[in-house]
Design goal:
By secondary structure, this protein is α/β, with parallel strands linked by helices. Helix content is 52%, strand content 10%.
Length: 412
């Protein structure tokens, strides 16, 4: 896989060529980043789309802009229950094994596990990380209980994909981010060891990093600790390539990467320091830019956006429950409908657009509206009509957001 890649989610498949234009503009500045269109099974179910629609959007965008570089279509967060629907149209598979993390080994498996991995009880060194690493048998058993079943499940899903694709190339990402606890760099070391032993040619690995990666807003956590763990994880990746026989293009992937502005300088500095690759995945940011563009576009667009918000407030629990682990909303900080009706479109845009320096910015409003794309799907005729009518202003917001707030800070 190419060194730098960037996942672009597009809930409603209307912004593909505006998203792609951001990559073209970045290339004009001297940096090539590979676009990866991503959409999960949950998102397809919510908006009533099918996986092949993502391939259509990507191919049409590539044709429109005569884009000559590589691009991919990501079956995002697939598992054994839904992988079949993505096999034909995808060439990038994010295998989500979060539901297998913490599945303990049986007594029989534990015995064979200790025999197979007993050599890891010997002290070992990871180049670039100070000190000798040591692990006791009790800790090794815990690592097996936590992660070995996940590697086994990843192998099972990989085999399904490989059998279908036969000689057609595809990329593999292993995702472990949608769990409660982060994985440490040393845990990542063992995870990659397990994946290598299951003969999975991993291109990207997406651990859960320390801190909160809430939807649509900035990173919340200890930046110094994040920097330390991210740097060590890069060193673990290098070690795994050399010592575990994993692909030379293996790189870290950052999920829920939209709008995590405060960690972008850290990531930028470290990937340059180690000449490392990076994949960062976004989704919600384009949907919110569609709302911003409609609010700016005219009275009809702003009226529709206010309708979305009103319904979202009335369906708060329904919309937020599926994202409960990645939201941090203070309901009291959300504007009432009475207040919102008095706002101008400019005031609403200032509240929704991710600019913490603007005194009107409201991260709680932004998180709630992240979950409200389901409502737009229920009004899709009106929504699509407005997107087409206000295409120029919506598209400009989409492109500028990806280029100036995401790609440039990460890769320039």
């Amino acid at each position: 896989m190419e060194k730098f890649s960037f996942g672009i989610g597009d809930r409603f498949a209307h912004q593909g060529h505006y998203q792609l234009q951001a990559f073209c503009d970045l290339e004009d500045l001297g940096v090539k980043v590979t676009p990866v269109w991503n959409k999960s099974h949950r998102e397809h179910i919510t908006v009533g789309s099918e996986p092949k629609s993502v391939r259509t959007e990507a191919d049409n965008s590539i044709s429109t802009l005569a884009f000559k570089e590589a691009y991919y279509v990501d079956a995002d967060h697939i598992n054994s229950e839904n992988v079949d629907g993505f096999l034909e149209s995808s060439d990038f598979f994010t295998i989500d094994v979060a539901n297998k993390i913490g599945e303990s080994l049986s007594a029989k498996d534990r015995e064979s596990f200790l025999k197979a991995y007993g050599h890891l009880l010997e002290p070992f060194k990871i180049e670039g990380i100070s000190g000798i690493q040591r692990i006791v048998e009790e800790k090794l058993v815990v690592l097996g209980d936590n992660f070995f079943a996940a590697a086994k499940e990843a192998s099972r899903i990989y085999d399904i994909i490989k059998a279908y694709k036969k000689d057609s190339p595809f990329l593999v990402e292993i995702s472990m981010d949608e769990v409660e606890l982060p994985q440490s760099p040393i845990e990542l070391f063992f995870i990659l060891n397990f994946l290598a032993d299951h003969n999975i040619p991993v291109n990207n690995v997406a651990p859960k990093f320390i801190g909160r990666f809430n939807k649509g807003i900035d990173y919340e956590g200890d930046l110094e600790r994040f920097e330390e763990d991210f740097e060590k994880s890069l060193l673990v990746i290098n070690h795994a390539i050399v010592n575990f026989g994993l692909p030379s293009d293996l790189k870290l992937s950052v999920h829920t990467g939209s709008d995590k502005f405060s960690i972008y300088p850290v990531i930028n500095r470290l990937i340059k320091k180690y000449n490392a690759g990076l994949h960062l995945k976004t989704a919600v940011t384009t949907w919110l830019e569609e709302l911003i563009g409609l609010a700016e576009g005219g009275v009809d667009g702003f009226t529709f956006v206010k309708k979305i918000y009103k319904e979202a407030m009335g369906r708060y629990d329904e919309l937020t429950e599926p994202y409960s682990t990645v939201l941090n909303i203070d309901i009291s900080a959300l504007p009432t409908m009475g207040n919102l009706q008095l706002w101008s479109s400019e005031e609403f845009v200032d509240a929704l657009r991710h600019n913490p320096m603007n005194f009107r910015y409201n991260k709680h409003l932004r998180q709630l509206l992240h979950t409200a794309y389901k409502i737009a799907a229920e009004h899709n005729d009106e929504f699509y009509s407005l997107l087409n009518k206000h295409e120029a202003v919506v598209g400009k917001n989409v492109k500028d957001n990806i280029l100036n707030r995401h790609l440039k800070p990460l890769f320039l």
